[in-house]
């Protein structure tokens, strides 16, 4: 097998995240993303690693028996957003649950296989479930007409106009269509990522499910010489250039935006248009960055309701993108917590209630949900705007026992005087910093709930938690993102007694080097990181060699060969690079 080789095969299974597995005649595994079990596909090999390879999907030659007759969205083939559009929803749920169960069974201690796996809870809505979309301006092909929508699958530049997107409701689609038609008519050009010229960048739309309030934000550069921009972007074809310059909008930015606002307000919506905004962003990165926002109409926020609580949301607030699914997720977490936070009168809770830490608290949704049954809830979040929103929302809901602190969990928890009785963890996709996890474990709370949006990061952290005496009691998945490969997982952990007769010891004496704990990660954590991110397996010996090269302390290895001329294998360059990357990730170098 070599790079560029074309292979054909049937997808045996799909592992998280989105990794379809083909097994070749010689027994090798080939990973092909964006596939479904049972499909016969062709792929071009683009990566080769020891024992397996990766291929880029070229064509689905035969549909899977699992697929339905109809796709839910006409854009499913081109758009990079929804991988499982062709799968019936019950099969999507089954596949996601199987993926998470496999990861859990692989990491959970053999002696604890009686944990409860509660399957997966479905999203209350399978279509039109998103409350937020960031559409991008661009073109569908080089020098094509203006497009507004999502990136084409596998493309950094080309945009698919998704006027019939099924994961948002009708109001989103109408706002997209009105906006695209208006700026096409005015011949306003998009921001070109390579040339760094152009005006239109993104269209951010948010809509509350419970209140129906809508917020629309147009993100542009400050390049307002509109005829010049229109001409510059079409400079490769003279006739097109002349036409673009002739028809380009020649007014002021204020006039342009007033016209756009009027077009939006003239349309009919099922919801309520609450605010129309304009955000400036000259950052070269292809992300929505707020360098100043003006309110063109209404206000720059709206309200959403979850589980009886009210939340104020701004254009850039972090908030779960599936409001009804978030209620299922947080209700599941609350059920897991159960009797650990007993209810009672306000006086009972004030005297006997628990102190809860909500770590990686975002806008404080979980903290506020637990507030009525806790003596005090302390939320820690690194994004300052989210913390300010959490404080405002707690006040809005009349909750006075919530405290929110802005800062990195790793640094902040040392300065908190109170000690928690219970901890809720809801970290970002990459999981918990190993040093922060060690500090969290040292609180020695009897129970924790861990909410994860990336199961592979979750199982890495569970390995550490189990090694320190925590047992997995319950696991439940929640489908927050139908038609995609994403899945949320809620885990209940309980502090168990460490029985020395049941401890499995699978490490060399090198693994007892305490610097691994003091400065970032154990050998097993480094091995797991390298395997997950590169597919390479590295030995403790190789890790020790690279640690020495980096000037890190390494414990003495007493398991040396007794042969005088024994050859010590040296770490290959590709594995050295992978180990160094892991050491950087764990902040050891």
Short note summarizing the structure:
The chain has four domains: 67 residues, Nucleic acid-binding proteins (OB fold (Dihydrolipoamide Acetyltransferase, E2P)); 199 residues, Rossmann fold; 182 residues, Beta Barrel (OB fold (Dihydrolipoamide Acetyltransferase, E2P)), CATH 2.40.50; 77 residues, no CATH class. It is 29% helix and 25% strand. The chain has 16 helices and 23 strands.
* The CATH C-level class name of the largest domain: Alpha Beta
User: In this structure, how is the largest beta sheet organized?
Assistant: 8 strands, mixed
Number of strands: 23
Count of individual domains: 4
What is the rounded distance between the termini?
Answer: 36 Å
Overall CATH architecture of the largest domain? 3-Layer(aba) Sandwich
Shape: globular
Percent of residues in helices comes to 25-40%
Q: Uncertain spans, ≥5 residues at pLDDT below 50?
A: 228-245, 498-519, 556-564
Average predicted local confidence, pLDDT: 85
Q: Please tell me how large the radius of gyration is.
A: 27 Å
Secondary structural class: alpha/beta
Give a topology summary:
Layout: E1 6-10, E2 13-15, E3 19-23, E4 29-33, E5 40-49, E6 52-62, H1 89-107, E7 116-121, E8 132-139, E9 146-151, E10 159-161, H2 170-185, E11 200-207, E12 213-220, H3 226-233, H4 238-247, H5 253-266, E13 272-280, E14 293-298, E15 302-306, E16 309-313, H6 323-337, H7 346-352, E17 355-359, H8 365-370, E18 376-381, H9 384-396, E19 402-406, H10 409-412, E20 422-425, H11 434-442, E21 447-452, H12 455-467, E22 470-478, E23 488-495, H13 515-518, H14 523-534, H15 540-549, H16 573-585
Parallel strand pairs: 4-6, 7-22, 12-13, 17-18, 17-20, 18-19, 20-21
Antiparallel strand pairs: 1-5, 2-3, 3-4, 5-6, 8-9, 8-11, 9-10, 11-12, 13-14, 15-16, 21-23, 22-23
